[in-house]
Specification:
- The chain has a two-stranded antiparallel sheet.
- It is mainly alpha-helical.
- A hairpin with a 5-residue loop joins strand 1 and strand 2.
- It has seven helices and two strands; from the N terminus they run H-H-H-H-H-H-H-E-E.
Length: about 150
Amino acid sequence: MAEPYEVPTSLWHRPDMLAALKTRDIGAVFRLVRQYGGLSQTAIGSLTGYSQGKVSAIMSGSQQVTALEVFERIADGLHMPDQARMALGLAPRDLAAAAIPRQDARPAFTSALAPPTVDLVRHGEDETEVRRRDSSASRAPPRPARAR
């Protein structure tokens, strides 16, 4: 059975909606959903778990949403697609689809890029010298420790 209230998918791609999401302005998000999605304050409240009065207060700016779990509940209730969720600063629902593909053109990790390793050389009870060892063959070998 279809849900009685549905936000049009195209609404989430509007520049004004994306700007509202990026600034986490839920009042603007609700106003845009009402204006372009045709949902009443009661319908928005029904989807997001708010009363009509609370939706009205958020839309007017007299109350603001700041809690992460409330952003999540609103995103879930309005069935925000992953692009909209990420604009709001939330994790996408489909992590595999939203993952940034790895580029094969990246340079491979080579020993020339490897950071030097450090060896501790113990000379006596209280004397310890730190000697750097480099894994690239192009650099000079480490100098022997000075005699004290």
